[in-house]
Write a structure and sequence with these properties.
alpha/beta, nine-stranded mixed β-sheet, two-stranded antiparallel sheet
Length: 322
């Protein structure tokens, strides 16, 4: 329920995750969701409107401590009362930013776009995009035509969004997609230049990713050169973030875009980390990676790097000074 990242006592809870629906119209090979059915944070397997409202009321105090509420799934927009849930949240939690994580396919329908965007201006929508072509994207989702629907949905959202609303893209790197990340970013710059945010995520080794590990498994050494290729173009985006990357996994030019977002219980450090000059700024390593890929991929950074630090715990490096 609570995504506290690596919280120190003075760091506010970043977001509350609300699983709206445990069903999806994609079947992504590296999805972190287990096989259905799975329980919500209170152990209940029901996702009807009444149960969700009771769940929210029960945890209202904790929710009010958070900065935002993330509507997740499955695919949240498939819930038969999705709009009612969104309206309830907007009315009862005005102090929390509402964030929707979606595959975007329902946004091909203009009437649905209009209804969602009219609920509240206090809304962010993060769509998933798995690659720059139908072959790559549909190869991950295992649904033919999902790429075309995602791109159309994205354009509909960008065309109709209101002041205060934000539209972003999340792209998860796996064996199928990582070589295409420079091309994916070029596509977004060309087709969606008004995007508010792009998030590049190194896959987590959980659930469907474990079941399909031979198809999706990657390591940081494979991914690094493709991430580094993107460096010259990163400042062309309004905002771009990299999630689930230890600092030693990318060149220092990428560090100002690297975020700490995983809960402390999900990450660890290896012996080499103790010799690194920048362990205190680093996310650490997802335990799923250590268990399923390698514990030996990490070389401590001994170089003294000039940098400007930020005041943001989640994004510690503001600028590298050359």
């Amino acid at each position: 329920m609570l995504d506290k990242a690596r919280l120190s006592p003075e760091v506010k809870i970043m977001t509350i995750d609300l699983c709206v629906w445990d069903r999806c119209n994609n079947s992504c090979l590296m999805c972190t969701n287990p096989d259905r059915p799975w329980p919500a944070w209170d152990g209940d397997f029901e996702y009807d409107f009444t149960t969700i409202i009771k769940r929210l009321e029960k945890h209202k105090e904790k929710i009010n401590e958070a900065e935002s509420i993330y509507l997740t799934g499955g695919e949240p927009t498939l819930h038969p009362q999705f709009l009612d849930i969104l309206k309830y949240l907007a009315k009862n939690f005005p102090g929390q930013r509402l964030k929707l994580l979606t595959n975007g396919r329902r946004f091909i329908y203009q009437d649905f776009v209009d209804k969602v965007l009219s609920v509240t201006n206090n809304l962010e929508i993060d769509m998933s995009l798995c690659g720059p072509t139908s072959e790559v994207h549909d190869g991950v989702t295992q649904v033919k035509g999902s790429f075309e629907q995602a791109i159309k949905g994205l354009k509909n959202l960008l065309k109709n969004k209101k002041r205060g609303q934000a539209i972003g893209i999340r792209t998860v790197l796996s064996q199928i997609t990582y070589r295409h990340i420079p091309e994916t970013l070029r596509l977004l710059q060309k087709e969606a230049p008004s995007l508010d945010r792009v998030i590049v995520i190194f896959m987590e080794f959980e659930a469907q990713a474990i079941k399909n590990i031979d198809l999706v498994k990657i390591n940081y050494a494979q991914v690094r050169p493709y991430i580094n290729q993107t460096a010259p173009a990163l400042n062309r985006f309004k905002e771009i973030r990299f999630y689930h990357f230890p600092l030693c996994a990318v060149d220092k030019e990428i560090w100002p875009y690297v975020w700490r977002t995983l809960p402390a219980k999900e990450v660890d450090f290896v012996d080499a980390c103790g010799k690194c000059n920048y362990k205190n700024l680093c996310l650490g390593i997802h335990k799923g990676y250590l268990e399923n890929v390698s514990k030996e991929d990490f070389i401590p950074i001994r170089e003294k790097i000039k940098m400007e630090l930020s005041a943001d715990f989640y994004r510690p490096v503001n600028k590298i000074i050359i």
